[in-house]
Every structure is written in structure tokens, then in C-alpha cells.
Amino acid sequence: MKASKPREEPAWAGALAERMRRHYQRFPYPKYSLLGSIRARDAWIFNLEALWARFRGRRIEDPAKEAILLAGSGSFLPYPVCVANPRGRVLALDLSASSLARARLHALRHLRLNLECVEGDLMDQSVAPGPFKYIDSYGVLHCIPDFAGALKALGSRLAEGGIVRVMVYSRDGRADVEEIRRRCAEAGITRPAEVRRLARGEAGLRGLMRESFELGFDEGIADAFLIPYARTFVVDEVLEALREAGLELLGFGHEGALGDPERETLRIRKLEAARAFPTNLCFYAGRPMAAPGPARWIELNPMLRNTVRFTAFGSPRLPPKIGAPVPPLGPEARRFLARFVHPLRADSLSAADRRSARAWARILVLMQYS
After folding, report:
1. Which residues neighbour 22 within 8 Å (Cβ) at sequence distance 6 or greater?
2. What is the pTM of this model?
3. Is 6 a residue whose pLDDT tops 50?
């Protein structure tokens, strides 16, 4: 199925880019408390070593030499990515100086000194040219009319085999919010206080605002309903843009995603046909790279070492940030995972343990590499 391209999209360069910059200057997003801290186990999915093992089956020899690009970083994401890569360099790129200033302050507040901030446009390939082994652009590219061009701009910055994570709004998952955003634009609403007044007489909008923590503050309301431009996608539009950008789909990362990208694509298409796909589209893509040999070593995600070794009671839960839910880290699971604090040869394990290790590796808890 070939997706049709949106018609009469505004040009990104110039007026629209400046409107987006001014919007996030006024409403840096998200505006979480600077006192809010992140534990290593909260940031495990951003660890470069684990990502490279999961999608490329290879080991990062020296993480300290690698840089990660956050393209459209916003004001919060740089902090957890710094936590997840304490020896690496994290480069935050954003149009908004206000967002970058808050991101820098949040990282410094928690003594994370490995963050660099660059004010600029990700569509300008001379800014932060890379190459990078990992780029994260979460909730950004749906604000740029030329989606395939934006993917190309990110792909040009990737190292050989480099990985990019992207989240964009889906047609179904964003439908209610887009309807309210359209009505706000038609009514000339430009301030969060006006949205709150609208919600007093709108049961549906009141319900949305009650359900979302982020809609409890001005910046969240502005990001959802007052943004100058946003578009939504169906999965085939994403696949077409990836082909145009010369990138390969590696997998999906939204909640409930199946591990096999082809099966997940079919599942999404069926849900979209029923107008019932419930979430936004999160996917991993990358520059083509030769497949590695079979996994010879298995190791624990370094962000989880203290969790499996020193958690005496309870069963810590990791959120389903890589699609499938993560089993509770109960005593038996922690004992199993603790065996991999240091690398183990795959051929030293029983067949049952290898199967278990593969399941944990699919969700980035373990790393398998050749």
C-alpha cells in the first residue's frame, strides 16, 4: 500500500521554523521539576552499548569516544541520556535556547557534566554533522513538513550502521488532540489559560486534561494544542519516507509493539484499518550494515548492574519503553541476570538459559554481541 503525501504543506525554512522557535522559546517543553532525579535503571534504554548490541549485534569498544545526538532535544531528555551514558558525550540540538538552557541546568543540577548544547536547526546538516552511532529524535519530526527530508538530514549524520529512534504522532493516537488543536486555531486561541477556559465547557477536553500529567502545566498544554504545525502518520507513510531517506527499519518501540518489525507493521495496518491504533508511532531505523556473526558473548546492560546486585527486597519494574513489557525483576530474575554482570560466553550456557537470555536481550536488559 502506497501512502499519499500530504498536500499544500508549508515550507519549513524561514517563517515556520521561526514560529516553532518562538513557540518553544515561550513554552520550553517539558517543564519538569529541576529537582526530579533519574536512577540508572530508569534510563537503561538510552545506553549506547545496549542499543548497539540490540540492533547491530556488536560491542561498542570504547563508549567514552562516542557521541549521541538528541535532535530536537527539548528541555528534559538530555538529562536521562547523560545518566545512561556517563562516559559518553551527549549533544543536545534544539531550535529553542530556552529549552537548551533548562536542559543544561537540569543536567548540572544532578552533576551530569557530559552534556553539550547547540542551538540550531536539525534540517541544517552543517550543524552537529557527526557521525553519530545513535541519534534520538522523539516527538520532533512531525513538526517538520518534509518528513522524508528530515529523516535524510538525520541519516546523513549517522555513522556506518548508525541507529536513530524517532517518535511521530499517529493518525488514531493523536485524533482527539488534533481536533482540539484545530478548534483552538480556528478560534484564535493562543494562550494556555484560554484552553483551560474552553475545557470548562468541554467534557471531552476536561477528560483529556485530567488523564495527562503534562496537561497540568502551561508548557504541556501549549505543546499539545497550540503548536504552530504538526501532522500525523499512518505506518505506510513512515515506511515510504524511510525508503526515500535510504534508511532501513530496525524495529518498533511504542507500547505493545511486537519484536519482529514485519509482524508489527501488519498488526498496525490492521488496527489502522479499524481506526483503532491507540498510541503514537515509535520506531528505530538505521543505515544499512553487514549482519554480524552469531552472538558469542552475553552481558548485562550496565545501567542495571546495581539493580540486580544490590536490590534486597521487592520486584522493581522497568517501564515498557522498548515495546514489550519488561517482567518484574523479582529475586529469581535478578539472580539470573546477575550472572551477566561480567560477559559470559553464550556457548557456556544451557539451551534454556540461552532462550531466556534472548528474551531479556530483546528488551535491552541483556546485551548479546559477536
Report:
1. none
2. 0.93
3. no
